[in-house]
Design goal:
308 residues, alpha/beta, seven-stranded mixed beta sheet, 14 helices, 7 strands, 56% helix, 13% strand
């Protein structure tokens, strides 16, 4: 059942970690991965500001009032919900709360076969956009209507990869890359997995991994494959920009891909952060500071970003 009770203005959102209804600890990666996927889908709506995963995950199992969470993250609205994977089916329930007033705006439940999970994510994003009166461009509408089925094992490997990468350790990065490599092997047409893999390759050596000459070419290949399948994958452009800047020394290409990534996903905090580094190297310090402010605004609780 769905319903709208108010038309309070909402231009910024935080998607809180989805509850794992299975009750099994071994399924937490699935709930967390679906949270990440929903954040990424909503973030691709240019008119919305969506808080990054690293700043919402600290609220997992938190018992703070939603009004307080909305204030801490400086957002108009909060999405909370639950997810259950069972017998090849996935069910997700979500509700949207207006932060300042704690008023219920909208709620709905969706059930699909697991292979249609990308369509499910698009349906949720489109419904949220509709309920908060965000105008979708024809390009947005076309993209949200064009999701393809995905191999179930590939999607599972993708979510496990996200969980490993989120550990922010060298070992986690290695396991994350292995899981994403398995995902694209199982489903070569799974564009988001190629994009996330590209970005993981492009940043791997920074955590003490292998030689840059080994991973940057892989980053470029995975990014180009992602864009061949879906030219709206923001992560792929960040990977190409990083590779152009730090490996090929092709600064015009780096600028082009940073700008394209941000145009496709204005809520991609990592794109803003890396673009700031690029602008700083050009001596454009005011512009770099603006990009850093945007990155911090989108990811206010990231200790990693503050440390950088």
């Amino acid at each position: 059942l769905s319903g709208t009770q108010t038309t309070l203005p909402i231009q910024s959102l935080a998607v809180l970690p989805l509850d794992n209804l299975s009750g099994a600890a071994g399924q937490e990666y699935f709930a967390d991965g679906m949270t990440d996927a929903l954040i990424n889908e909503l973030a691709r709506i240019p008119a919305l500001k969506v808080i990054s995963r690293t700043s919402v995950m600290p609220y997992k199992n938190a018992r703070k009032p939603l009004k307080q969470i909305a204030a801490e993250l400086a957002v108009d609205g909060v999405i909370e919900g639950s997810v259950l994977q069972e017998g090849g089916q996935i069910r997700i329930s979500v509700k949207l709360i207006h932060g300042a007033t704690d008023r219920h705006v909208w709620s709905d439940s969706y059930q699909r076969e697991l292979r249609s999970v990308l369509t499910l994510q698009n349906d949720v994003a489109r419904a949220v956009a509709r309920e908060i009166k965000v105008t979708l461009t024809p390009q947005d509408e076309k993209r949200l209507a064009s999701a393809r089925d995905v191999n179930q094992e590939a999607f599972d490997a993708y979510l496990r990869g996200i969980q490993y990468l989120d550990q922010r350790t060298e070992e986690g990065q290695k396991k994350g890359i292995e899981s994403l490599e398995r995902a694209v092997l199982l489903d070569p047409r799974f564009a988001p997995a190629h994009g996330r893999l590209a970005l993981s390759y492009a940043t791997f050596f920074m955590g003490g991994g292998l030689e840059p000459r080994e991973y940057y070419p892989k980053a470029k290949a995975a990014a180009l494959k992602a864009l061949e399948l879906d030219d709206t994958v923001s992560d792929a452009h960040v990977a190409l920009a990083t590779t152009a800047l730090e490996y090929d020394w092709n600064w015009p290409d780096a600028a082009r891909h940073f700008e394209k990534s941000i145009a496709l996903n204005p809520s991609n905090s990592q794109a803003h952060e890396r673009y700031a580094t690029y602008l700083q190297s050009l001596g454009r310090f005011d512009d770099a500071l603006e990009e850093l402010k945007l990155a911090l605004d989108l990811d206010p609780l990231s200790v990693f970003r503050v440390a950088d």
